[in-house]
What we know:
three-stranded antiparallel sheet, 2 domains, hpI Integrase, Chain A
Amino acid sequence: MQIYEKVIKILNSPPRYHNRIYEKRVRIDGISVYASSRNREECETKFLADLTAKILDTNSELSVQSKSRSKILFRDVADQWFEEVFKPDVTPQTYIREYGRFKLHIFPSLERKTIRQVLPIDLIRIFNNFKEKQIERTAESCYSILKRIFDYAVLSEMITKNPMVAIKPIKHERENGIPLSREEEKAFLARIKGMKYEAVFILALYTGLRPCEYETAKIDGQFIIAQNRKRKNVQKIEMKKIPITPMLRPYLPLVEAAMPNWQELTADSAKRARWQFQETCPHHRLYDLRTTFATRTQECGVSETVVQVWMGHSPRTLLGRVYTKYSDEHLLSEGEKFKY
């Protein structure tokens, strides 16, 4: 791996948290870079300073020679980072969503500025605007991406200091999903009958798939298999298996009939399926079908660890994560409990 690629990888990797200490380390061409702190941001700052002093200042491979640094536009840097650093590590849906969000909320304020002209006060005004509009989730996303873009600019020697150090880290408090009640579920099934996305909604309700996993779903014997998008950044694609349960079985002909056009049907599900779901179930989000599945399986007495496997989460215990590998027979047996 080239020095440039190693540096990009370590900059995008989170610090290790051990014994209440954040640590970050790398060894490049025999040179060790290390930083630690009880504060994550301080650890990142120390690491970047050590990295710059030991590696970047002496390595011409990471220098930007093609254009005068004083004339490099912020938008050009952001576009390069999105295309070459961010895009290869995320799903197409995530790339489109995050780039669109950034284009809408950040570019209008900064796109005419060079990377060196962006000052902390410019960023403070942007985040004050987020606060006034009460769009905390967007603010959190933009904070994370802006910090990484400016880290990239520091790494590439376009600027010497990340102006995001003046911005307090933003953490959006996410709301947990709300499962449909039994009455809401019954009414929902009646309303979606004959709709374009009926098969998609049924599959989500009785398998717990994430919306981004719909397009990968297919029938394999007595199971529905789909890519586990929780593991999207690992090199090996991980598939998860959810049994065809008594609740899904009556709808299997509907799902099978949709399968030949499944890719076409689910390709735009990120938007259109959500809109159709919102029309039929205005007090819930599409993701609540996944929450409903998790809730009902627990109510039916399915093992919590098995449900975690179906949902694509790592079991909470070391025993569950490392040593427990359930047989198909056991998964099918637990699936038969899912009946109400």
